[in-house]
Write a structure and sequence with these properties.
InterPro entries: Metalloenz_LuxS/M16, Peptidase_M16, Peptidase_M16_C. One of its GO terms (molecular function) is metal ion binding. By secondary structure, this protein is α+β, with helices and mostly antiparallel strands. It has four domains: 67 residues, no CATH class; 217 residues, Metalloenzyme, LuxS/M16 peptidase-like (Cytochrome Bc1 Complex, Chain A, domain 1, 2-Layer Sandwich); 204 residues, Metalloenzyme, LuxS/M16 peptidase-like (Cytochrome Bc1 Complex, Chain A, domain 1, 2-Layer Sandwich); 182 residues, 2-Layer Sandwich (Cytochrome Bc1 Complex, Chain A, domain 1). The protein is built from 26 helices and 17 strands. The chain has a seven-stranded mixed beta sheet with strand order 6-7-8-12-9-11-10, sandwiched between helices. A five-stranded mixed beta sheet has the order 1-5-2-4-3. α21 crosses α23 and α22 crosses α26.
Length: 752
C-alpha cells in the first residue's frame, strides 16, 4: 500500500523500522552512533512525568539526570516533509495467502488542517458528530437483508507528511467486490446529495452531551496512563489538552448552536468523486477472483449516474417495556462488613451480590452466571447450542428488531448481552446510574422475550460462512484452532471454526429452543453488581426486574463429558507459517488443587519462569524477542492446571531453545532465587493494590467467590498468602507439576 499512500514522498523510502541491510552493514558502527547523536538530543525531547510524587523533588531529579546534556556543536536542523498531492486515482489489487477477508478501501488525500484555535476545536466537535452519523448510516444498511457489504466505516484521520486522509472501507463477500464498492459509495453520495436528517442530528447531540456529562463525573478519577496519553498526544501530534470541565462546557455550547449546515460543510469537504488525490486498494485472499482496476473505477463512476433516493429515517417513539413486571419477593439478605458486600436471595431461586464503590463517578458493572452452558446440549445439537446466544442476540428483543432496539437505546449509557459458554451461561453489561433501570429491563427481556428473526439469522450465517472460509488463512488462527482440537482430542464437542458446510446445517429452531431452555428460568442464577450506587435505592428495582423473573427449577449443573488433554509427551508440528520463523507453545497439564493458595503459587512460579526465560533465551542466547510463561487454573470440568510457555524464533534455533527452556525448568526444580521471588511478589502486591480500586476487578472477585465457593476469609488472606510463599515451595511445585509426564509441544513451523 505504501507506494500509493506515500507516492513521490520521502516517507516511502524512510520507514520507521529502517532497513536491516543498513543497520547490519559492516563498518557502519560510527554511522549509527552519528545518527543517534544527531537526533536523540535535548531540544527534540520532551519529558512527561505523571503520578504520585512531590513536584519540586521530581524537578530536581530530572535536572540532575538530564540537565547536563547538550545538543552538540553541529546539531542538524529538523526538517518536516510532506506527501505531495497527485493527479488521478491510484489503484492496487492485493491478494495474499494470509489475508482473511475481502475489503475495499477508498482513500482521499487532503492537506492537513491544524487544530490551534477554538474555531478548529469546534470543527473537531462537528467531526465527531459527522463520523457518528455517517457510520450509523453505513451500519444501518448492514442490518438489511441483501446488504451490499458485511461491514463498512468512513472517517477522517491525520497521516504523516502534513496530510489528512478521508478513509471509506467496506468488507465484502469475495464474489461481491463491485457490489460492495458501489454500495459504499452510493450511501456516501446519498449523504452528499441529501445530507442528514434533523432527527439523526438530534440523536447524536444527545449521545455526545451525555458522553461529556459522564466524562465530567470521572475527571478526578483518571489514571496516570490516561493523563500521560493526553499530554503525549498534545506534545507529539498537537492535539488539544484541556481540562474535562472545559471540554464539557465547550462541547455542550457547540451542540446548542450546531446545525445541519455545519455538518454539511464537512460532508462537502470529505465526500467527492474527484479522481485526483485518491487511492483505491482492494485486499483479498489469494484465490479470490477480483475485478480489474478499470472495472473498479467504472463502478464508482456509474454510481454518480444513479437516481439515488433520499434516506428514510427510522425513529421509534415507544418505551422498551409497555407492561412492567409487578416484582418478586426477597427470601434472604446478608451483609459482609469486611468486604462491603450485600447478598440478596429472591424467592424465584435467583440471587445477587452487590458491592457499592466510589472508584468511578457514574459506572455500574453488571453480570450473571449459572452452571450449565452448552455442556447440557446433546451431541447432535452441539453446534446449534454453542451458537445459540449469538444467533438469538441478532434478533433484538420483544417486538423490536435489532435496529429498532438501537434507536430506543440511543443516547443511553447502557449495554447488556447474553452469553452461553461451555459450562455456564448468563449476561454481562454495564450502565450509568441514570440508565440502570434500562439495563434491568433489557436483562428481564433477555430472559423473558427473546425475538426470533429468521432474516437476521440467514444473513448472519451467510456472513459467518464468508468469514470462516478465510479465517484459517491466518497461520496464527489456524494454529490456535488446531491446538484446541488436540487439547479436546478431536472430540465432536470441540468448539472450532465451523466450515461453510457445517454452518449450512445450523438449525435456528433448535438453537432458539436451546436458548429458551436456559433463559426461560432464572433459577440458580447469581447476579453480580459493582459500582457507584446505594443498595437501599436499587433494591426495589432489583426486586421488580430480577425477583420477578421466572423461577421454574431447571438443571443448574454442568455435565462433564470426560474430555481431557492427551497424556504423555508429544510434539505436534503444523507447517503452515508463510514466513521463515517458528512459534513454539510448550504446555504442561494435569490435575491441580482448587484453592486460592495453590493458584497463587502456580502464578508466582510462571512469573519467575518468565524472568528466567528472558534472561536465558533472550539476553544470553539472543534467540527470541519476548518469551513468556503463563499459568491457568481451571475448576471445570475438573480441577486442573496449564503451564504455557511461548516464544517465536528462527526454525534452525528451535530445538536449541527448547533444550534451554527445559534446562531452566530443571534448574528451578533445584532452587529459585530469593531475588526473583521477591521481585514477582512485589509486582503481585502492587497490582493487587491498583486492582482493588477498579469495578471490573471487584466484579471478578464476586464471580470467582461464587464459582469457587470461597469467602471473605480467603479474600483477607490473599496478600498474606503471597508474602508467605517460600522459594522451596515453588521448587517443589516445579518438581511435581513441570515434569515431562504430560508435556505437549505445539509448533507452528514454515511451510515445507
Amino acid at each position: 500500500m505504501y507506494p500509493l499512500l506515500y507516492k513521490d514522498s520521502r516517507y516511502l523510502h524512510r520507514r520507521p523500522i529502517g532497513l536491516m541491510e543498513v543497520v547490519t552493514q559492516k563498518g557502519n558502527d560510527e554511522e549509527l552512533r552519528k545518527f543517534y547523536r544527531s537526533w536523540y538530543r535535548p531540544e527534540l525531547t520532551s519529558i512527561v512525568v505523571v503520578g504520585d510524587f512531590e513536584k519540586e523533588e521530581m524537578e530536581k531529579r530530572i535536572v540532575a539526570t538530564f540537565g547536563s546534556m547538550d545538543n552538540g556543536d553541529h546539531a542538524p536542523e529538523r526538517e518536516y516533509y510532506t506527501v505531495p498531492m497527485h493527479d488521478g486515482t491510484l489503484v492496487k489489487i492485493i491478494k495474499d495467502k494470509e489475508i482473511t477477508s475481502t475489503s475495499v478501501k477508498i482513500i482521499n488525500k487532503f492537506p492537513h488542517r491544524e487544530e490551534k484555535t477554538l474555531g478548529d476545536l469546534k470543527r473537531s466537535v462537528v467531526n465527531i458528530i459527522y463520523t457518528y452519523l455517517v457510520n450509523q448510516r453505513l451500519t444501518d444498511l448492514t442490518q438489511q437483508k441483501g446488504a451490499p457489504y458485511m461491514y463498512a466505516q468512513s472517517y477522517a484521520t491525520s497521516a504523516a507528511g502534513k496530510t489528512d486522509r478521508y478513509m471509506s472501507l467496506a468488507t465484502t463477500k469475495s464474489d461481491q467486490i463491485i457490489e460492495g464498492t458501489k454500495g459504499l459509495m452510493r450511501e456516501l453520495l446519498r449523504i452528499k446529495k441529501y445530507g442528514f436528517t434533523q432527527a439523526e442530528l438530534d440523536r447524536k447531540k444527545v449521545i455526545l452531551h451525555n458522553d461529556f456529562e459522564q466524562m465530567a463525573k470521572e475527571e478526578g478519577k483518571q489514571s496516570s496512563a490516561q493523563i500521560m496519553d493526553a499530554i503525549s498526544n498534545h506534545v507529539i501530534y498537537g492535539e488539544e489538552n484541556t481540562s474535562i470541565a472545559f471540554k464539557k462546557e465547550f462541547v455542550q455550547k457547540v451542540l446548542k448552536e450546531l446545525t445541519l449546515e455545519d455538518v454539511q460543510e464537512l460532508v462537502n469537504h470529505y465526500i467527492n468523486l474527484s479522481e485526483d488525490n485518491r487511492v483505491i486498494i482492494v485486499t483479498a485472499p489469494e484465490n479470490t477472483v477480483t475485478p480489474s482496476e478499470e472495472e473498479l473505477l467504472v463502478a464508482l463512476r456509474s454510481v454518480a449516474d444513479e437516481q439515488i433516493s433520499p434516506y428514510v429515517d427510522l425513529d421509534v417513539d415507544e418505551p422498551l417495556m409497555h407492561d412492567l413486571p409487578k416484582g418478586g419477593g426477597i427470601k434472604n439478605e446478608t451483609f459482609s462488613a469486611a468486604m462491603g458486600i450485600t447478598t440478596i436471595e429472591f424467592t424465584n431461586g435467583a440471587s445477587i451480590a452487590l458491592k457499592p464503590t466510589d472508584f468511578k463517578g457514574d459506572e455500574i458493572r453488571f453480570s450473571s452466571m449459572r452452571e450449565g452452558g452448552y455442556s447440557l446440549a446433546s451431541l447432535e445439537n452441539f453446534d446449534n447450542a454453542s451458537m445459540a446466544s449469538v444467533l438469538v442476540s441478532q434478533g433484538g428483543l420483544s417486538k423490536f428488531n435489532a435496529l429498532q432496539l438501537e434507536r430506543i437505546l440511543s443516547g443511553k449509557q447502557v449495554y447488556v448481552a447474553p452469553y452461553i459458554n461451555r459450562y455456564n451461561e448468563g449476561v454481562t453489561g454495564f450502565s450509568s446510574n441514570k440508565d440502570f433501570e434500562t439495563l434491568l429491563q433489557l436483562t428481564h427481556l433477555i430472559y423473558t422475550k427473546p425475538r426470533k428473526d429468521v432474516d437476521k439469522f440467514e444473513q448472519f450465517i451467510e456472513n459467518k460462512k464468508e468469514y470462516n472460509r478465510n479465517a484459517l488463512n491466518s497461520p496464527d488462527s489456524y494454529f490456535t484452532d488446531e491446538v484446541n482440537k488436540v487439547m479436546m482430542q478431536n472430540s465432536p464437542r470441540t468448539a472450532t471454526l465451523l466450515t461453510p458446510e457445517k454452518l449450512d446445517k445450523i438449525n435456528f429452531d433448535e438453537a432458539f429452543a436451546f436458548y429458551q431452555s436456559r433463559y426461560s428460568s432464572a433459577y440458580g442464577t447469581r447476579f453480580f453488581m459493582v459500582g457507584n450506587f446505594n443498595v437501599d435505592s436499587v433494591k426495589p428495582l432489583l426486586t421488580k426486574y430480577l425477583g420477578s423473573l421466572p423461577g421454574k427449577k431447571i438443571p443448574s449443573k454442568y455435565i462433564d463429558h470426560g474430555i481431557r488433554p492427551p497424556k504423555g509427551a508429544h510434539r505436534y508440528d503444523f507447517p503452515r507459517n508463510m514466513v521463515d520463523k517458528s512459534k513454539m507453545l510448550m504446555r504442561f497439564t494435569g490435575k491441580y488443587p482448587e484453592s486460592q493458595k495453590a493458584r497463587i503459587e502456580m502464578g508466582l512460579l510462571s512469573d519467575i519462569l518468565t524472568i528466567r526465560l528472558n534472561q536465558k533465551l533472550r539476553e544470553e542466547i539472543g534467540g527470541v524477542y519476548s518469551p513468556y510463561a503463563s499459568s491457568t487454573i481451571l475448576q471445570r470440568p475438573y480441577s486442573c492446571y496449564r503451564m504455557d510457555i511461548y516464544f517465536t524464533c528462527a526454525p534452525a534455533n528451535l530445538d536449541t531453545l527448547v533444550r534451554a527452556t527445559l534446562h531452566e525448568i530443571d534448574a528451578m526444580k533445584k532452587g529459585i532465587s530469593a531475588e526473583n521471588l521477591d521481585k514477582v511478589k512485589k509486582a503481585w502486591l502492587k497490582n493487587r493494590k491498583g486492582s482493588l480500586q477498579t469495578n471490573g476487578y471487584w466484579r471478578r472477585v464476586l464471580e470467582d467467590q461464587w464459582t469457587r465457593g470461597e469467602d471473605e476469609q480467603d479474600f483477607e488472606k490473599f496478600e498474606q498468602q503471597i508474602q508467605d510463599v517460600r522459594a522451596e515451595q515453588l521448587s517443589k511445585l516445579a518438581r511435581k507439576y513441570l515434569n515431562r509426564k504430560n508435556h505437549l509441544e505445539f509448533v507452528l513451523s514454515p511451510q515445507h
